[in-house]
């Protein structure tokens, strides 16, 4: 959810080399046929392009963060991730995100201006690959409403799944352009190598290497998990790009394509007033996996085995003694609920704040196995009547 805020930044490689906007436009035009062939779709109109400086990129990042994460929302996000133990209390999230984006960005497509931006004054052997990747986003926008899809509020997990599909689709097309006429992505050996290279390449970037696990995994997920989903899509579906109605509804469906489309997430909502709510969202399977790995102190996350996640919803509530977290989740079976409850209860007690209390309990959520976890100040008045789910 954090990285979906600034759309289509962080594409891998070196920025495209172009001495002028004319040169950039010429590069875009020369790559169009190859992009169309790799994607299997035609451009309906010529995409616009422009050169920007590295300072322009930084200003763009700040503007998008201010728009997507105003102060009130930023406060809620930070409070939530700190209470989950995903971010340390001392971390300046805004400053780190700007650093990460600035380090990662090698060109970007902005759906609002419908323009592909190249970064001036840079060189690199992978210039055409990066430009092609961004061209795929411009092509996607002619078939899907990227701006509205990426700005949906209230279900960050679904937005993360959409972003993964779009980035995964662009990644596969870029790879196809490097090796035209040979279906390298069909090779399991190639795919294993690709995943390893992405992680090794990212670890070589100083800001990325020192970022918390949740930010590192969120940054990698669209380019690895999303690409793997679109690799599966390519072999099982007829359309080159999912229609809006075909986009996965959760990161669970992206991580485990066998659950697409039948196993959709259960929509949970709170029954109580939202008057004192600082922030409310869905965590999703991706970040639930990351949460468990963070509790274990793992350096990276293994997503091979489905957790049995069926849906979740959490709230961060204001209180005089500090923010309170209430998180409900639904599970596919009693056994999977019991397994997660043991791990989560132990993990939350390991990160319990001073003056706070943790409660982890099995509950019924819409007639399905559920869990309620509360991490809140011991003096919080809400303990007497915990927020409940709507029936």
Order of helices and strands: HEHHHEEHHHHHHHEHEEHEE
SS content category: alpha+beta
**Tally of individual domains:** 2
Strand order of the largest sheet: 4-5-6-8-7
| Number of helices in the DSSP assignment | 13
Measured between the Cα atoms of the first and last residue, the distance is 27 Å
What features would you describe in this structure?
- By secondary structure, this protein is an alpha+beta fold.
- It has two domains: 21-259, no CATH class; 277-384, no CATH class.
- 47% of the residues lie in helices and 14% in strands.
- The chain has helices at residues 21-39, 54-68, 71-83, 93-104, 127-141, 146-150, 156-178, 188-203, 206-210, 213-236, 251-255, 284-296, 334-351; strands at residues 48-52, 108-110, 115-119, 277-281, 309-317, 324-331, 356-365, 368-377.
- Strand 7 (356-365) and strand 8 (368-377) form a beta hairpin.
- Helix 2 packs across helix 4 (93-104) and helix 10 (213-236) crosses helix 12 (284-296).
- The protein is globular and about 65 Å long.
- Mean pLDDT is 89; it is low at 12-17.
């Amino acid at each position: 959810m954090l990285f979906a805020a600034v759309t289509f930044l962080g594409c891998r490689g070196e920025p495209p080399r172009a001495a002028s906007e004319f040169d950039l436009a010429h590069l875009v035009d020369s790559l169009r046929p190859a992009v169309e062939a790799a994607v299997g779709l035609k451009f309906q109109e010529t995409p616009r392009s422009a050169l920007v400086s590295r300072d322009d990129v930084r200003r763009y990042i700040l503007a998008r963060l201010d728009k997507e994460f105003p102060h009130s929302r930023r406060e809620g996000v930070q409070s939530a991730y700190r209470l989950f133990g995903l971010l340390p209390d001392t971390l300046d999230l805004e400053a780190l995100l700007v650093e990460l984006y600035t380090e990662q960005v090698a060109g970007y497509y902005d759906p609002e201006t419908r323009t592909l931006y190249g970064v001036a004054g840079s060189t690199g052997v992978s210039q055409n690959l990066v430009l092609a990747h961004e061209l795929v986003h411009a092509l996607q926008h002619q078939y899907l409403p990227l701006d509205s899809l990426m700005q949906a509020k209230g279900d960050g997990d679904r937005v993360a799944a959409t972003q993964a599909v779009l980035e995964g689709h662009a990644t596969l097309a870029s790879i196809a352009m490097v090796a035209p006429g040979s279906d390298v992505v069909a090779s399991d050996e190639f795919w294993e190598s690709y995943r390893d290279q992405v992680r090794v390449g990212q670890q070589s970037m100083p800001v990325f290497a020192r970022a918390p696990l949740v930010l590192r995994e969120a940054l990698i997920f669209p380019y690895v998990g999303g690409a793997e989903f679109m690799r599966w899509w390519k072999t099982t579906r007829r359309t080159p790009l999912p229609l809006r109605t075909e986009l996965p509804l959760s990161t669970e469906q992206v991580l485990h394509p066998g659950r697409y489309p039948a196993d959709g997430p259960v929509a949970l909502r709170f029954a109580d007033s939202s008057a004192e709510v600082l922030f409310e969202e869905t965590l999703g399977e991706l970040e639930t996996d990351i949460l468990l790995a963070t509790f274990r102190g793992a350096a990276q996350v293994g997503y091979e085995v489905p957790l049995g996640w069926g849906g979740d919803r959490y709230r961060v509530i204001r209180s005089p003694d500090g923010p309170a977290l209430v998180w409900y989740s639904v599970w596919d079976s009693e056994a999977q609920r019991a397994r997660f409850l043991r791990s989560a209860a132990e993990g939350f007690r390991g990160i319990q704040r001073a003056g706070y209390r943790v409660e982890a309990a099995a509950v019924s959520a819409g007639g399905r196995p559920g869990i309620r976890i509360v991490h809140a100040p011991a003096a919080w008045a809400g303990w007497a009547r915990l927020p409940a789910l709507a029936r």
